[in-house]
Structures are given as structure tokens and as C-alpha cells.
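Troubleshooting entry. The earlier prediction with pyridoxal-5'-phosphate gave an output that would not parse, so I re-checked the input for stray whitespace and re-submitted. Clean input:
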Amino acid sequence: MTTLQDCRARDAADPLRALRDLFTIPAGVIYLDGNSLGVMPAAAPARIAAAVREEWGTQLIRAWNASGWFDLPQRLGDRLARLVGAQPGELVCTDSTSVNLFKVLSAALKIAAEDAPQRRLVVSERSNFPTDLYIAEGLCRERGYRLQLVDAPEQIAALLPETAVLMLTHVNYRTGAMHDMAAMSAAAHAAGALAVWDLAHSAGAVPVDLNGGGADFAVGCGYKYLNGGPGAPAFVWVHPRHAQRFWQPLSGWWGHAAPFAFTPDYQPAPGIARYLCGTQPILSLTGLECGLDTVLAAEPLGGMAALRAKSLALTDLFIALVEERCAGHGLELVTPRAHAQRGSQVCLSRSEGAYAIVQALIARGVIGDYRAGDAQMPDILRFGFTPLYLGFEDVWNAVEHLCEVLASEEWRRSEFNAKHAVT
Ligand SMILES: Cc1ncc(COP(=O)(O)O)c(C=O)c1O
């Protein structure tokens, strides 16, 4: 039986503990939603204010050169590359995950159309994040492909001989289940298909090896585990074997080989820079830079391997405490117990009151979120664990609040049952 004292002792012995000071966490808040919007880096307000006052305010247009605004997407991309098993020059930070997915899926379909024109399927999971499915649906309609969704990963193998592109999200947004990227990419390649990965819940959360894992294309999110701020620019990675092969269809001037030559014809920039489109949001990229600094600050302490070890320890503890202390309250564990199949979040389902329970927890300062269920699964209470700023005592206290909300049935109060626009 774990005790509060055990949790305190684990915090005292945690080599990553000091990283918490890199963040501004409001008093009284236990933040279990870093898988949706990461906590603000403490350095962000001053750094963004300096970009506004000194760079924009004083340097004005000269800042594109003087403050290195022009190549910020590449410079941040080179730093982020270290977290996802990519090399410098293979990744840029830009646009949203949805827009970047459009670019890479377009390029993948173009390759497939040349190399394997008889293949007409894009395969994904019905449980994938909706924007991925919507983007794929739109492109499939336009290019004459069929989007085939499976209910279980085991159904993918039978479709691969007809598949042009296998498009998967590495860690599922609702369940926290994680794919074996290397095995799935190898299976796609062995059958002649390409593998496109969404790393929205992976970058900064779990170790990723894009080159070693055989991925063809990847996109991911800047505002979740990378702590880049609301709507932070996302990222896009293309394997070097594909990077020179095609333009992506959003062939704006920032992806041109010489944007300031202002030629009327388009010449794609070499490599990943052709995946840029238009003028970049410098203040948002500045916020993302602060977020990347927080994750990269773990490098001298063991980097992603150390973050992963702590993340698994936190999620193991949460699962054990929920099962010990909240037994009999109708909570079911949805996230896989096996470490190799678990991202950095824990999801619990409940047939009644999931939304209201989350609202009652938020009122107590324990911030998680809710995702609606479907035919396969009841509604979900979703808890993200960011090891950079969460401790073991936080986990103890969060479970304590969850037990109290359930035991007292405080979640039945009407204010916790009124649905907000954003859940
Ligand atoms: C797997 C996945 N992809 C994409 C997104 C969001 O994409 P965008 O930033 O374009 O809204 C999310 C958001 O939660 C997500 O979970």
C-alpha cells in the first residue's frame, strides 16, 4: 500500500524535480492536462515581451535579419529534431498539425501514385483524432482515393496489399494507447505502403525515433507536451529519401528556394524548407522556443529516457492509487497497463457522470479533461502526466480529490453538469 510519505520520499529523490521551477503553475492547481495545453514556461512572458518590445518595437523590419526571425522555423526544428530521432535539417516548426498533415499526406499520395498507382486506399483507425480523419477524407475525395478506417489495429495487415498510405497517430488521444512505430512502419513498407505518423501526443512525452523507426512522414503538435502555448506552431518531418522528391501543394513563397528573388515561377527550396508556406508567426514561434527550452533542459539529466521513466512511474502510481482508493466507484481503466503500449496519459471510463466528475475536479483545482465515448467505449476522464512539472505527491492529492468527488457524489451538483463549449 502506497502512502503519502512514500510519494513525498519519491519527490525528494527525483532527479528531475528542479525542472518544475521552469514553469508557472498557479497556486492550488494540480495540472493533469499537459496533453491538451502544456503549462506556461516561466520564461515565456519576459521572452515574448522582449520580442514585442525590442525586436518588433525597435528593430521593426530589420528583426527578420537582426534577430534571426527568418530562419526561426528551421532553428527550432533542428532543436526539436533531437527529441524525435531526427537529424538537423529534417524538420521545421510551422503551421498547425492539421495543415502539416495535409502537406505530408499530399506528398505521400503523390509518391504512391507514381510508385504504386494500383493502390487506392488510405488506411487509418476510426479512433484516430478527427482532424486527421477529416484531412484524409478531404484529400482522398480530391485525389480519388478511399479512406478505409479500422476498428482494431489487427485489421490493418489484411488491407496493406491495397494500401497506398498507412496514417496513424502514435499515441491515441482518447485512450493513451501507443503503437509500436517501428513494427507498424516495417509492416507497411514490407507490403509496399508508406507510413505517415501523427506525434501530437508523443513529442516531448515519449521517446520517438523517426529515422530508426522507419517512418516516411511525421507531424506533431507544439502546444501539448512541448509547452509552446495556445495554438503554438506545429512541426513537420519528412524522411530525407522523400524530402527532395516533390513539392507539397501549399507551395507558398516561404518554401521557395529564393523567396526574395521574387521570381514569378516556383522553385522549391532544397529539403524540408519547402514544407513552409507563408510568413511565419514569430511571436508564437517565440513561445514555442520557450517551451522547447523546458523539454531540452532535461537533456543533462537523462533527456527523453529520464522523462519517460518518470512518466511511467507517475502513471503507474496513478493507476495503482485509483484502483486501491477508488474501488467500487465504477471507474474502468482504458489505457493499457503494458508500458510499451502506454503514452503519458491515463484514461478512465465511467458509464455515468464522467463529464461532471471532471468539472467537479476542476473546481477543486485538479485539471484533467473529458472525452465523449462512442459505441465501443463509455465516456472518458482523461489525465495527462507531464513529468517536467508533476510530482508523486501531486498524483496522491489528485487521486484523493477523485475519491472524495466520487464518495460524496458532489459531481451530481447542477453546476458540474452544464456543458461548456470546450470540454
Ligand atoms: C492526434 C492529434 N492530432 C492533431 C490535433 C490537433 O491539430 P491542430 O493543432 O491542427 O488543431 C490533436 C489535438 O488534440 C491531436 O490530438
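This one parsed fine. Residues 96-98, 129, 131-132, 169, 173, 198, 200-201, 221, 234 surround pyridoxal-5'-phosphate (CB under 6 Å).
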